[in-house]
């Protein structure tokens, strides 16, 4: 009886184990399939794992302290720190300067004379005149002449305050930058000169101090052609005046004007240039001035007096 029972129990147990194994295998397969499917769905629908085909906006890091460029502050450079190599003075030096242009006709005629005589000069230009005669300003520039600031308006009302004077010179700088891409220079000339007799003494003293303290050099002259007179000065008078004042000088800054009404200046200029060459003068400009020349200008009270 016992033996018969075992014969029935053992096959039943084997059948039970086989069925259980198949169920567990099917369950695991179903569970794996379901889990894999869910993982795929989560991956597909999750923006953080999905490949982004939308162009990404580039966020600039220029505002970060690490990558932020240093702030550039433009100060007029001290004339003595320019890159021009220093040298001793020539035995005789002359700076030809022309104020109040560029004019409609006279400026080009002066340029022709300078070219014919192979000499350089400095043009202290007025901003509003540069706007009116921009082609002639560019002609000065294209010939390699020195161009410096002589205010925008040349109106003596600019001397009413430091602020109005600064504004006027800054406006001229802006015009020169726009028309010939010239950066602001530390060289300038006040309308009427630094001691013009028009402005109030105290105000003009404050104006001079401001420009000196900011690294500028204001240039006057030690030889005047007298062509600034309201009347037309005769050619012979201009020649006599300039040659006489240059006679006992070795370092000269000559004041002339490239204004259309100053026709006798045009006539006198070739004669004056010929005389200066015969006397051994070397023609110089302010855009390549040396430290030794700067010191001479200051010592003679032609600059920053």
Structure overview:
This protein has helices at residues 2-45, 106-117, 127-132, 134-142, 162-180, 201-213, 235-246, 263-278, 291-299; strands spanning 93-99, 122-125, 146-149, 187-188, 217-218, 223-224, 251-257, 282-283. With 305 residues, the protein is α/β, with parallel strands linked by helices. It has a domain at 89-299: TIM Barrel. Strand 4 (187-188), helix 6 and strand 5 (217-218) form a beta-alpha-beta unit. Helix 7 packs parallel to helix 8. The termini are far apart.
Largest sheet: 6 strands, parallel
Radius of gyration: 42 Å
For the record, what CATH class of the domain at 89-299 applies? Alpha Beta
Q: Give the termini distance in whole angstroms.
A: 141 Å
Q: Which homologous superfamily in CATH is the superfamily of the domain at 89-299?
A: Glycoside hydrolase/deacetylase
CATH topology-level name of the domain at 89-299? TIM Barrel
Number of strands: 8
Mean pLDDT: 82
Give the helices and strands as they follow along the chain: HEHEHHEHEHEEHEHEH
Output the structural class. alpha/beta
* Overall body shape: globular
The CATH architecture designation of the domain at 89-299 is Alpha-Beta Barrel
């Amino acid at each position: 009886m016992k033996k018969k029972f075992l014969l029935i129990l053992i096959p039943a147990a084997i059948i039970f184990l086989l069925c259980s194994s198949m169920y567990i295998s099917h369950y695991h397969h179903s569970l794996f399939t379901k889990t894999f499917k869910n993982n795929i769905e989560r991956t597909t629908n999750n923006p953080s794992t999905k490949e982004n085909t939308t162009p990404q906006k580039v966020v600039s890091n220029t505002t970060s302290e690490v990558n932020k460029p240093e702030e550039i502050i433009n100060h007029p450079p001290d004339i003595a720190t320019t890159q021009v190599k220093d040298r001793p003075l020539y035995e005789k030096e002359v700076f030809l300067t022309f104020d109040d242009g560029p004019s409609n006709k006279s400026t080009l005629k002066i340029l022709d004379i300078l070219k014919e005589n192979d000499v350089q000069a400095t043009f202290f230009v007025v901003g509003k005149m540069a706007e009116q005669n921009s082609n002639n300003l560019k002609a000065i520039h294209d010939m390699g002449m020195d161009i410096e600031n002589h205010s925008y308006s040349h109106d003596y009302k600019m001397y009413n305050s430091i602020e109005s004077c600064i504004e006027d010179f800054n406006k001229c700088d802006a015009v020169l930058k726009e028309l010939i891409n010239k950066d602001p220079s530390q060289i300038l000339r006040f309308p009427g000169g630094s001691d013009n007799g028009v402005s109030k003494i105290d105000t003009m003293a404050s104006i001079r101090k401001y420009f000196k303290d900011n690294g500028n050099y204001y240039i006057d002259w030690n030889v005047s052609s007298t062509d600034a007179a309201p009347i037309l000065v005769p050619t012979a008078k201009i020649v006599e005046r300039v040659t006489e004042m240059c006679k006992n000088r070795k370092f000269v800054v000559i004041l002339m004007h490239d204004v259309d009404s100053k026709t006798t200046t045009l006539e006198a200029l070739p004669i004056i240039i010929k005389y200066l060459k015969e006397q051994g003068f070397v023609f110089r400009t302010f855009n390549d001035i040396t430290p030794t020349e700067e010191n001479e200008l200051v010592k003679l009270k032609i600059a920053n007096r």
